[in-house]
From TrEMBL:
Record carries keyword Transmembrane: yes
Domain Rhodopsin, chain residue ranges per copy: 37-277
InterPro entries the record matches: Rhodopsin_dom_fungi (IPR049326), SAT4-like (IPR052337)
Phylogenetic lineage: Eukaryota, Fungi, Dikarya, Ascomycota, Pezizomycotina
Protein name in the entry: Rhodopsin domain-containing protein
Keyword Transmembrane assigned: yes
Organism: Cercophora samala
Length: 294
């Protein structure tokens, strides 16, 4: 993901890097708190980690690395007006933004996969719903893997991805890349919404208290916000590739990419944390009642 095209020195100076750093680290911090509580809750209850936990940890690592590369990139001029960036920093800034975007894509893919696996494990669902969740997991990973490949392989030789002045070589048509990335954003957002709504279908027929059904549906339904972030990326991808795109458009795209992975991580953690809180509350209530028995 390259910085905007060069402008003239008469352009006004714009610096959105502080905003980007604030947003991405708040989102990552939020995800860090929730995944830490999830892992602590598993340890507290003596539960072993499963594949969804390992994928969630990998997703958080990718998210964290993506934020680190973005922050380093802002120190080189990413998020500022092109004419204010030192010429010697432009190529390395493009490379770092590409690496950051790559890790954010991985964070989104792995967190969605973890969400699907958590849903399968919590519900023990069979039949059509189980096939639907597996379909969502596989197709999402296939589509996002395509984005990862395009991220690096859309130009040849490879270094032309970040060194646009390299003579010779070829790149995929920009319209083709943009079209595919918009499709992936739309499909990914659709899968987020579908996975967030599936608990309504799965839990409501079960013999559970009404408030428990509402609670777990809302907890897992937070994944809808990841879908919203993914849908917003469609417009952001369009804006960042316009001829006169500004630094604010690139910053918005990177922030939305960070938000998509971070929100999904939080959504995956919510059901486990809710179960832990309910068990602890029940234990405290029983202890309080026992203390008042003569």
């Amino acid at each position: 993901m390259a910085p905007p095209a060069e402008g003239s020195t008469s352009e006004p100076f714009e610096d959105y890097s502080p905003v980007l750093n604030f947003v991405i680290w708040v989102l990552t911090g939020y995800a860090t708190i929730f995944i830490s509580l999830r892992l602590w809750g598993k340890h507290h209850r003596g539960r072993r980690l499963w594949w969804d936990d390992y994928l969630l940890i990998a997703s958080w690592v990718a998210l964290f690395l993506g934020c680190i590369f973005q922050t380093v990139d802002t120190g080189l001029g990413f998020g500022r007006s092109q004419h204010s960036v030192p010429v010697e920093n432009i190529e390395i800034a493009r490379l770092l933004s590409t690496i950051a975007g790559f890790f954010l894509i991985l964070a989104a893919a792995w967190s969605k996969t973890s969400f699907g696996l958590t849903l399968l494990r919590l519900t023990q669902t069979d039949g059509l719903l189980k096939k639907l969740v597996w379909f969502a997991i596989w197709t999402t990973n296939i589509c996002i893997t395509g984005s990862c490949i395009i991220q690096w392989a859309h130009c040849w030789p490879l270094d032309r991805v970040w060194r646009q002045e390299v003579p010779g070589g070829k790149c995929l048509p920009l319209d083709l890349m943009n079209g595919y990335n918009m499709f992936v954003a739309a499909y990914s957002g659709t899968i987020d919404v579908m996975l967030a709504l599936l608990p309504c279908k799965i839990f409501w027929p079960l013999m559970m208290k009404r408030k428990e059904k509402i609670g777990i549906t809302i907890a897992m339904g937070t994944g809808i916000f990841a879908g919203i972030a993914s849908f917003m990326k469609i417009l952001a991808i369009h804006n960042v590739n316009r001829p006169r795109a500004g630094p604010e458009h690139v910053v918005v795209l990177m922030a939305l990419g960070t938000a998509e992975g971070a929100i999904t991580i939080v959504a995956v953690c919510m059901p486990v944390l809710r179960t832990l809180l309910m068990q602890d509350s029940s234990h405290l209530l029983k202890s309080s009642l026992l203390n008042h028995i003569p």
